[in-house]
Structure to design on (117 residues):
């Protein structure tokens, strides 16, 4: 079997609010099926947004990272959109951690490693 594409689906309380949030941090709306499901994407990732009748509790031990060549630009985007964040620097890069409206853990990272070809 050949897998043609993939996505990570996040359960959300408010589909339109979530779409606006992900667009505000640089993802593009790829597809929307009325109020049932939507997909937002950026280079290398597609995130499905699925409305849920169940209480949304965040991502637990899952986090989604977005690699960037400029953490400064990512932080500016977060500040422009009044999204709370905290900075951290580790051996693998510089990070800005933040959450989406449903408490899914997200981060921008400026990696300090070279990517393989």
């Amino acid at each position: 079997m050949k897998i043609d594409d993939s996505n990570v689906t996040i359960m959300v309380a408010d589909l339109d609010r979530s779409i606006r949030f992900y667009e505000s941090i640089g993802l593009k709306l790829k597809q929307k099926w009325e109020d049932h499901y939507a997909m937002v994407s950026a280079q290398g990732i597609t995130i499905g947004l699925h409305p849920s009748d169940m209480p949304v509790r965040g991502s637990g031990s899952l986090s989604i990272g977005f690699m960037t060549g400029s953490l400064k630009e990512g932080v500016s985007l977060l500040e422009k959109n009044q999204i709370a964040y905290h900075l951290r620097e580790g051996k693998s890069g510089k990070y800005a951690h933040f959450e989406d409206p449903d408490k899914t853990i997200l981060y921008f990272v400026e990696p300090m490693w070279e990517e393989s070809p």
